[in-house]
Structures are given as C-alpha cells and as structure tokens.
Design a protein that fits this description.
Blueprint (H helix, E strand, L loop, with lengths): L12 E5 L11 H9 L3 E4 L14 H13 L3 E6 L16 H5 L3 E4 L4 H10 L3 E3 L12 H11 L5 E4 L8 E11 H6 L13 E7 L3 H13 L8 E8 L12 H9 L6 E2 L13 E3 L2 E7 L2 E5 L1
Length: 299
C-alpha cells in the first residue's frame, strides 16, 4: 500500500523551492498570495532567487534546500517552483529518513516527475500538478482548484472529451506517470517506478516526434507497457518535426504502441504543459473509464 501524507489544514506551513531552473521571488509572488488565501503559511527556500547559469543555484544549494524542507517537521507540503532541468541531479543524494517519519506532500510536474517516481518507489504518494511559477496563467483556474482539492483531501475527477483513438474499457489501479522524457531517462535508475498493474499517465513538451517514438519504443521493448491496467494521455505540447516529416503526430505515435495491448486508453486529458493542468495524485488508487461520451479518471 502506498502511504498518503496527511492532508493539509489551514494554518500549516508549506515551502516553495526550486529544484531545477532558476526562479525569482517575484515570479512566485502570486503563488505565495494564492497559498496564503488557502490559509497556509508560506516559506521560500534559499533556492528561490539563487542562480547558476540556468539552474536555481548549484546542485549542492538546491539539494540542501530541498533536504531542509524534507527534514523540517513543521513544513507540511513542498511545492517545486518550476521545471526545466536539474531535479534528477539531486535525487540520489537526498535522505528520506526524516520524511518517512513524518511524510508530507511534494507537488509539481514536468522535471519533478523524477521525484514522483522516486517517492512512489519508497512507498509514498505525491501530487502531479501546477507549479508556483505558473499559478496565475489565464485558463488555469480549474488546475489550481484541483491542486487545492488534492492537498486538502477532496476527491478528484478529471474528464476528457471523446477522441477517435480512444480504446474503450474500465481500469482500476494506482496511478503512476508524468513526463515521458523523465520516465524514459529514469529507466534503470533508483527512481524507476513499476508500471505493472497500474494506470499510467503521460505528457510531454517540445520534443521531436521521432524522439517521442524512440522513447515509447523503449518502454515497449523493455516490457514496461505490457502489464498496464490502463493508459491516460495528456498534453503533448509544441511537438517538433524534422525537415523530412516523421509521418505521424504525437497521439498517432502513442496509438502505434498502445494498440498492441488490451488495456483501455483515454486521450485528451487536461494534464501537462498547458494552463489547464489538473492535479493527479501519484500512487493513489484510480478508476479510468473510457466510453463513447469521453473518458473519466476518478481518485
């Protein structure tokens, strides 16, 4: 059984840290205000405002900041400020013993996928959802509402419109997934998560279509897709092509591999690199239903 950290209550303290790309305190000020309206007391980590080239300070500073928030018993949730690249450079040196004694929510997506899968491997749930850097995007109101629901223990419902590539059916299982590129590069590491018997969700950004195919081929050839209970497909935003076209779009490439299996598949879910990025709880039991009227994912 995957352990759920205690849900938040008004008056509790939460932290914002940057584990990857640099971000200023001004760029998370609206998130600070939003979390305050939720009744939370917000602490900014030392990585907020720090900079080393594209990173929010060097690896040691970012690791030290995240470790401090993991260890502090008064911090009840950690919000990763933004993605980019760099979280995977920290994860192997983190100590989760204090976290295990008093689990807390870790929230974010994109580059934060490696933290989600690492925590899942340790037996803990976490939240894939909007990050402070983009809290106030126009069109992101439902994303923020769902993040608050996840943090405060309310049920989650994520719905998707019908799609011609949907494969109908119903599946139940713990939810696993996130950014496809991070799932792919976590293969063979301590942060690789098992997909067996689980519902996998995928999203990605700014990848070449041939690279998308290569990553999915790797998951297929390595047997990681064979035991899935179901597949949830979110945004594949700003995909790129070569001068000689690859010949398939992102959803068609996913279908090329998914149709080899019998599990249900739902496309068009509002998850990933768009303003309407609904929160999902990694490691929590979920039910996927795909039918003529569309798809639902309930947690």
């Amino acid at each position: 059984m995957v352990i759920a950290p205690p849900f938040l209550q008004p008056g509790q303290r939460v932290a914002i840290v940057a584990t990857a790309r640099k971000v200023s305190s001004a760029e998370v000020e609206l998130a600070h205000q939003t979390l305050t309206t939720w009744g939370l007391n917000v602490v900014l980590g030392e990585s907020i405002g720090a900079a080393q080239h594209q990173f929010a300070g060097d690896d040691d500073l970012r690791r030290r900041d995240l470790q401090r928030q993991l260890d502090d018993p008064n911090i009840r949730a950690i919000f990763c400020a933004r993605g980019g690249y760099g979280t995977a450079r920290l994860v192997d040196e983190l100590d989760f013993r204090a976290f295990a004694a008093r689990p807390k929510w870790v929230a974010g997506f994109s580059d934060i996928t490696v933290l989600h899968t690492h925590l899942l491997g340790l037996g803990y749930q976490s939240i894939h959802g909007a990050m402070p850097f983009a809290f106030q995007q126009p069109g992101g109101e439902l994303a923020l509402s769902s993040l608050r629901q996840a943090l405060f223990g309310e049920a989650l419902l994520c719905e998707a419109a019908p799609h011609s590539l949907n494969r109908p059916g119903t599946a139940t299982g713990e939810l696993v997934g996130g950014n496809l590129s991070l799932l792919h590069t976590s293969t063979g590491t301590r942060s690789q998560a098992s997909f067996a018997g689980r519902i996998l969700f995928l999203e990605d950004l700014d990848e070449y279509l041939y690279h998308l195919d290569r990553m999915l081929l790797h998951l297929h050839r390595s047997g990681q897709l064979a035991g899935l209970a179901g597949l949830v497909v979110g945004y594949f935003s700003h995909m790129r092509d070569n001068a000689i076209p690859f010949g398939q779009q992102a959803y068609e490439i996913i279908d090329h591999y998914a149709r080899r299996y019998q599990f249900p598949v739902g496309y068009n879910f509002p998850v990933g690199h768009e303003a309407d990025n609904r929160a999902l709880v990694v490691g929590r039991a979920a039910t996927l239903a795909v039918g003529p009227a569309g798809s639902t994912l309930r947690q």
